[in-house]
Amino acid sequence: MKQFPEVQGGGSLILAWQVRNKHILVVGGGEVAAGRILNVLNADAKVTVVCPAEGLNDEVAFRVAQKQVTHIDRNFLPEDLDGVDMVLTAVDDPAASTQVWTLCKERRIPVNVADVPPECDFYFGSVHRDGPLQVMISTNGNGPKLANIIRRRIAACLPDNTGGAIRKVGVLRRKLRKMAPAQEEGPKRMQWMSKVCEKWSLDDLCEMTEEDMNWLLQYYKSGIVPSLEELRLANNPVAPVFDGSFGCTKISFADLARNDEDFAKIFKANKGHIDYQNPEHVQLLTKSLLKRDFGLQIELPSDRLCPPVPQRWAYIQWISRLLDSTTPTFPTPANPNRPITGIDIGTGASAIYPLLACATHPTWKFIATELDVHSITSAAFNIALNNLAGDITLHRPSLGSSVDLLGPPCTPPLLPPLPPGPIDFTMCNPPFFASQSELSATWTKSTPPSAVCTGSESEMITPGGEVAFVTRLVAESAAPGTRDRVQWFSSLLGRLVSLRPVVEALRQAGCANWAVGVLRPGGKTRRWVVAWSWGAWRPSGVRLPPFLSLHCGC
Ligand SMILES: C[C@@]1(CC(=O)O)C2=NC(=C\c3[nH]c(c(CCC(=O)O)c3CC(=O)O)Cc3[nH]c(c(CC(=O)O)c3CCC(=O)O)/C=C3\N/C(=C\2)[C@@H](CCC(=O)O)[C@]3(C)CC(=O)O)/[C@H]1CCC(=O)O
Ligand SMILES: NC(=O)c1ccc[n+]([C@@H]2O[C@H](COP(=O)([O-])OP(=O)(O)OC[C@H]3O[C@@H](n4cnc5c(N)ncnc54)[C@H](O)[C@@H]3O)[C@@H](O)[C@H]2O)c1
């Protein structure tokens, strides 16, 4: 048989009576009246007090003087009840009390006569108030003092921020109703709001900012409720250690100079400017930014590429977002501490990608490949310098034991032998140019390059340029035994014109899951990034900082 709640008679109906702008008459102006007046003023009623002026206690006199209430300076008269919605009586004259009660009953006006339960349509209760929260205790006339004690005890148990949390929930509910106003959305709205209240602690609700609310509301459609931590991790445009000086804003050299003596020297010597055509300046800028924003130290050979930190960091962030959006649980934010393995193809003398990634993601591991002996030696030095040898493994592709001296120069595969276990991504900064003349052509363009290039030939030039390079990578990635081992393959592209042929190569290889993005971290230089997967998880709903973008295709 179905169980229904048992009826427990003898109680009263506890309501939250809305008396805003209702006319309430208070008869008497002593201590009890003062309490009643405060109660009804807190509920925004229009209050009139009838009581001889000499009978007003300090508090009531204050309310009269402040014009918080209207005062009638005499004893009660029946006409005082005209147009009144409720009456509260607190006088030391039982006969007057009874007269008020009788008249109110004739006129069907609800009335409370303090201390005279039989002459009350409703009793007051002991009330705890914290912003929008009100807790009322009633002992139904049995023990008013106990009501007071119980109320205090309950209030003491409530967390300090209860009122604040309730206020935030109110704002969130109003926003949700505005976003999904349809009547038929009601059940879904209510279910989702209930989930938020159940899942979030009062502390978290209290801490919820307007921005958090807007992010949170984006999950409404899916019915999912992430925790505050998950929400912030998923939508925080920058890793916590990063101070945000890249991105859309310009790097403050003055600030950098304050943090770094070496940088300060050249900055001051050059009258507050950086000479981007001076290799020493460019190298110092890179070193200084890595030190200040990522706690990284590097040494760079003067004849190798000096990596622009904002661009490199933007690629790491882009990859990180791509991975976050392609987990089995998306859009529930992925665990930021899950292990991630990446491969950097051609890590260069700086090993900048693995260094940046591992310095900001403690659970990421890298395999970094490098063909050039000079560069790999320097990369090993930089990895050791930052105590990251446990996280970053260097691999030098072998040219093979039997080099055919008569045939074309032997080129080893771009991808290293894959280690056991899942590999989350590969990344690559390919040589952009097809020939020395193509490289030189960019130097003689009407707009010269914004910074000096110290890259070696092997870093800058590859037969067929970056399109041929990435097309090779696409072919390698498609091989059986490789395609299922890596979730995302990716590469940077130096030129927009390379995007179309690369995407075409992907289509021809039968790849239907790819994404392209533009990296535009502040400066003039734009770079493009392409990623492809032979798996089924597609990027969607990725929130990217304004200087990164993502387009998905098939
Ligand atoms: C809760 C509170 C709200 C408020 O008034 O705002 C309230 N009384 C409070 C205090 C209080 N009142 C009294 C004492 C002395 C100690 C004691 O008697 O316990 C104390 C303690 C103190 O002053 O600390 C004397 C008293 N009260 C009533 C009678 C007549 C009777 O019982 O017959 C007598 C004379 C008894 C006698 O002569 O012996 C009657 C009522 N008082 C009620 C409410 C209603 C029932 C609420 C309930 O049962 O929960 C009810 C029925 C009608 C009404 O007035 O609405 C407020 C605490 C607010 C706070 O939290 O601070
Ligand atoms: N419910 C409660 O919690 C509670 C607690 C304590 C006292 N009481 C009772 O409440 C009543 C008021 O208590 P108090 O401490 O405020 O007393 P009080 O003596 O401080 O105030 C009485 C007020 O009534 C006014 N008054 C008297 N006759 C009047 C009339 N005909 N018209 C208008 N005003 C009139 C007086 O000028 C005075 O301002 C008493 O009966 C007291 O026993 C109730």
TrEMBL record:
Reaction(s) catalysed by this chain's protein: precorrin-2 + NAD(+) = sirohydrochlorin + NADH + 2 H(+)
Pfam family, one: Methyltransf_10
UniProt KW keywords: Methyltransferase, NAD, Oxidoreductase, Porphyrin biosynthesis, Transferase
EC number(s) from the headed UniProt entry: 1.3.1.76
Domain Siroheme synthase central, first and last residues per copy: 130-155
GO-annotated cellular components: nucleus
Matching InterPro entries: Met8_C, METTL16/RlmF, NAD(P)-bd_dom_sf, SAM-dependent_MTases_sf, Sirohaem_synthase_central, Sirohaem_synthase_N
Tagged with keyword Ligase: no
Broad EC category: oxidoreductase
Siroheme biosynthesis protein Met8 C-terminal domain location: 159-226
GO biological process, one term: siroheme biosynthetic process
Pathway(s) of this molecule: Porphyrin-containing compound metabolism; siroheme biosynthesis; sirohydrochlorin from precorrin-2: step 1/1
Keyword presence, Translocase: no
A molecular function GO annotation: methyltransferase activity
PANTHER family from the UniProt entry: RNA N6-ADENOSINE-METHYLTRANSFERASE METTL16, SAM-DEPENDENT METHYLTRANSFERASE
NCBIfam families: cysG_Nterm
Protein name: precorrin-2 dehydrogenase
The species this protein was found in: Trichodelitschia bisporula
